[in-house]
Design brief:
Length: 329
């Protein structure tokens, strides 16, 4: 293997960084209703440690970073972290995935810190259903957060909807229409089997093909050309739409051959694949003062351990036991 090309000829250029496992919501598909025991403060990578990993990852070919959680906006001084990451030579793209609850107050400071790309999770346009999904009455805060960021030059602003049969799949078309009327990119995510004691079952996943055929009833979908930074999402837009549609078919479709990502958890583990329990510890080496060369070897090792894909015939089983809130999606 050379540089960031893995054994299966995939270019691994994208690192998703979970900066906390804590969250101000309890989405039932992500963590159990009574929450999960949080990591101790000492277990979590400091901002300086995260920055050191990212600087090393650049040497391994990483050019794109996404901050995630838990909920990244509950960690203090996130704007400091953003401003440091955007100034790392070699990083060309920095994004953040948030549930939007604190976005209204954080939008401007994040923009000033240099953030431009935002993904906001929103699974329903109905405030009561929002409570049923997240366990919190935060719908209006999230909506105001979306309105606030739309008044600033963030680009793109994506809305992530996890489509769950019998829960919110009746809202698919309404979400799709948002991409016609506004510049928002609406992305439909298949409900994934991740996390011990997850409530997931195969019947609740609405597959990408079903999503696509329902969207096509609204109007013809025009494929959108991706770029070298794009991950495996399928991109489309409706004729004369201001925004875009994306479909993340992690479960039903082989998107593994296009997978360009590596994950860093808040407690300092590198995860080569979302659908596997395999983790590579980088925190111990960091805290023992390992050289840059040694850290680079650990990252390259994690890239080398990316599996060719997950076995579609056995996707009915949960094969990653860490909760999604401790991975970051
Ligand atoms: N708290 C932030 C948020 O909700 O956007 C960031 C962390 S969250 C784990 C990242 C993404 O993972 C969110 O878009 C969320 O909807 C998605 N997610 C969580 N559990 C999922 C599951 N079981 N299947 C599919 N997507 C999931
Ligand atoms: Fe929290 Fe995001 Fe998980 Fe919902 S999806 S519980 S907001 S980490």
């Amino acid at each position: 293997m050379t540089s960031n090309i893995d054994f299966y000829n995939r270019k691994i250029n994208y690192l998703r960084v979970s900066i906390t496992d804590r969250c101000n919501q309890r989405c039932f598909y992500c963590m159990p209703g009574n929450g999960v025991a949080p990591f101790k403060h000492s277990q979590i990578l400091s901002y300086e440690e995260i920055i050191q990993v990212i600087k090393t990852a650049v040497q391994a070919g990483i050019i794109k970073i996404r901050l995630t959680g838990g909920e990244p906006l509950v960690r203090k001084n996130i704007c400091y972290l953003v401003s440091q990451i955007v100034s790392i030579p070699g990083i060309v793209d920095v994004g953040l995935t948030t549930n939007g609850v604190r976005l209204k107050e954080m939008a401007e400071p994040l923009f000033e810190a240099g953030l431009r790309r935002l993904n906001i999770s929103l699974d329903t346009l109905n405030p009561i259903k929002f409570f049923n999904i997240t366990g919190k009455y935060h719908f209006h805060e999230v909506w105001e957060g979306i309105e606030t960021v739309m008044d600033l030059p963030f680009d793109p602003i994506k809305i992530n909807m996890v489509v769950i049969r019998g829960v919110n799949d009746d809202e698919l078309e309404n979400f799709a229409r948002i991409s016609i009327q506004t510049p928002l990119h609406v992305r439909f995510i298949e409900y994934m089997p991740v996390g011990a004691d997850s409530l997931w079952c195969p019947e609740k996943t609405v597959c990408a093909d079903d999503i696509l055929s329902r969207l096509q009833k609204i109007g013809p979908l025009i494929p959108v050309e991706g770029n070298h930074l794009d991950g495996p999402s399928l991109r489309y837009r409706f004729e004369s739409a201001r925004g875009e549609i994306g479909i993340i078919s992690a479960v039903s479709n082989h998107f593994c051959h296009k997978c360009n990502r590596l994950r860093l958890t808040a407690d300092g583990k590198l995860k080569p694949c979302l659908f596997s329990d395999e983790e590579i510890d980088i925190k111990t080496a960091l805290r023992r003062g390992a050289s840059q060369k040694k850290l680079l070897k650990i990252i390259e090792n994690a890239i080398a351990k990316k599996p060719v894909g997950h076995d579609m015939n056995s996707w009915r089983a949960i094969r990653c036991h860490r909760h999604m809130s401790k991975i970051g999606g």
